[in-house]
């Protein structure tokens, strides 16, 4: 009996998930169609860029600084044991640029900006502002979703670039403090061993994560049901959806380019 | 010009509209009245494609529109404007920006020109001093008037008003009545007005449709409705608490 009930519940969950994945896919198609011809509402895009970037930079800087330093502390024992001082820059750079930077900043961006965006769109939906927009013959996809997708992609890439740079600074500081390695050594270890492709690998991930976060947050925002309670649920679902997509897409992109 | 034929609409299996027939001619001011929850807002949302019929037909200007795809409703929505019950101004914009939005999007106006035009329109509904406020900083009645100004920006042929005078003081309510009447008389605009406001109903309506239990129970000129011998209609327009009317809830 219990077994049967949990099986039914599991079935329901799977169905709901399939519906959401399908919904996000349909939204993606609609966004792509709305981009031909590429008409973008400048004001709405700029407003979103400002809102998203405005207070994200300090948080990203702070985290990146710690992550950069933290990598060195983790490495320190091995560096001392094997005398691999020349590899510190390369090691941290490789990890941060290709993996840690995009994924960490992506998750943080989703929790801050994506959640905020879902709440905004969900509130607009339950208070009939989205219907109001449609009644004015303005397409919510073109006017609300496309600018947000574009803004999030741009902003996440920008934040990742900033985060990469700051993490590097964190690495240099901690290398000097913990291992007494001169920042120059770290820098040359990095530029001698890493190419633009490592950097671009991370950036392309950020671009994709930005799109995934935006689509997930817009989808759950616009399909909200049931007033204020629904808004809370939508935010929750959007953050979870974005986190799962980020990990999945990261795996996929790493696997395909390896 | 607008006709609903045998419209059915249910939400989660609960029927709201059952075989509803309604007609509205060009330049007419048609009032839709009925108890709360009877389906007045649901009815007019069908006319701009925000809700779709389960069965039945909707005609606009001799063209059947109920089965059109979402894209096709764009053109219709520029001709048929709607003022929502809850005003639905956009929170992220000031009053003037709200009114300027359709001008900017459809009127191909530049932002500055659209804002100037929006201010002029808001002045007409007595909101000149509040153009730079956000909706959250306004009263309900102000928001409603702002929404009316916004709905009229595209010079629509038909305007659907969902309780335009609810929440307004008597003076502003009568001004809105006058505005609706003038739109019809001077510009030939067709107005469908959902209302509970008996004063405005009997002052400006050309015809009144009384919704009851999913359909139109009575329809006619104000004089005809007043003189109706249907006890349900009489109970409603006289506002008696007890009578033959079956209302859900109580
Ligand atoms: N999106 C929806 N989902 C489910 N039920 C709905 C929806 N919209 C309306 N309803 C139901 O349809 C019925 C009619 O609602 P409607 O908003 O049309 O009432 P109304 O006549 O406009 O009332 P009021 O005068 O209070 O505004 C109500 O019972 C409501 O619960
Ligand atoms: Mg209503």
Write the layout of secondary structure elements.
The complex is a heterodimer of chains A (258) and B (250).
Chain A: H1 2-34, H2 42-54, H3 56-82, H4 88-126, H5 129-135, H6 140-179, H7 183-193, H8 196-222, H9 227-257
Helix pairs in contact in A: 1-6, 1-8, 2-6, 3-4, 3-6, 4-6, 4-7, 4-8, 4-9, 6-7, 6-8, 8-9
Chain B: E1 2-11, E2 14-24, E3 29-33, H1 40-47, E4 55-60, E5 63-64, H2 73-79, E6 80-83, H3 95-106, H4 111-124, H5 140-151, E7 158-162, H6 170-187, E8 190-194, H7 198-204, E9 207-212, E10 215-220, H8 222-226, H9 231-238
Description:
- The complex is a heterodimer of chains A (258) and B (250).
- By secondary structure, chain A is mainly alpha-helical.
- Chain A has one domain (2-257).
- Helices cover 88% and strands 0% of the residues of chain A.
- Chain A has helices at 2-34, 42-54, 56-82, 88-126, 129-135, 140-179, 183-193, 196-222, 227-257.
- Chain A is globular.
- Chain A starts with a helix and ends with a helix.
- The mean pLDDT of chain B is 90.
- In chain B, 36% of the residues lie in helices and 24% in strands.
- In chain B, 41% of the residues are buried.
- Chain B is α/β, with parallel strands linked by helices and 250 residues long.
- The termini of chain B are far apart.
- Chain B has one domain: 3-Layer(aba) Sandwich (Rossmann fold), CATH 3.40.50.
- In chain B, the strands form 2 sheets. Chain B has a 6-stranded mixed beta sheet, sandwiched between helices. A 4-stranded antiparallel beta sheet of chain B has the order 2-1-4-5, with helices on one face.
- In chain B, strand 1 (2-11) and strand 2 (14-24) form a beta hairpin.
- Chain B has helices at residues 40-47, 73-79, 95-106, 111-124, 140-151, 170-187, 198-204, 222-226, 231-238; strands at residues 2-11, 14-24, 29-33, 55-60, 63-64, 80-83, 158-162, 190-194, 207-212, 215-220.
- The chains are: A mainly alpha (258), B alpha/beta (250).
- The interface between A and B is medium-sized, with 18 and 27 residues.
- Magnesium ion binds at residues 40-41, 85, 162 of chain B.
